[in-house]
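Batch manifest, entry 17 of 40.
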Amino acid sequence: MRFAAGVLGVALGTILLPSLSKYHADARHAEYGELLDWGLRLTFLLAVPSAVALAVLALPLVATLFHYGRFTAEDAWMTRQALVAYSSGLVGMILVKILAPGFYARQNIVTPVKIGILTLVFTQILNLAFIIPLRHAGLALAIGLGACLNAGLLYRYLRRHGIYAPQPGWPVYLLKIAAAVAFMAIVLFTTMDESGWWLSAPWQQKLPAIIGLVLLGGAAYAGCLLAFGMRPRDFSRRGAA
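Output type: structure tokens
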């Protein structure tokens, strides 16, 4: 989870902050909103399939990485539950890293801190609500939902104060991503082997199998987007001049 959030979220946030700061300093409000919109579109393009793939391939991933020695099949299933719960918040975790620079570039640190404190309280309440029925998976789910709340509140503040307005085309864009992700999930679910195989096969067989599934899922997702008319050049953007 942290690997995906770090590679996508931290990288995009690091790219956005200097350009957003320059646009704000130069009072180029249109470019400011367009750049933030570009970061959000790229986030959904990369984070949504990552979250769905983590959920679908949860057991194969856990079995390939950890199911050896004293790590039993029961441990693998319990870890799978936590990973599926965590995946629900991956998009939110990455969105926070994209939306927060929208505040930092304007030298507004107080608002993200206040929202972070509110999110912390909300997460602890969910922990108490989920710990008995869902056990350890409930704690993971609370963290994921807390991240989504954090991102939602940051987005709401930016919209309400006129700092960011979505560019045209979002509904169609999200529909294309949803369709491509659904196709990818179907491909992965129908091609990955039964759980019993992942829990019994040696690592020499599981490792190439999981790599093949990851490549297959990526190819299915990318191919579907290409069929919808989306191209890599649609997401290229130069930094602030």
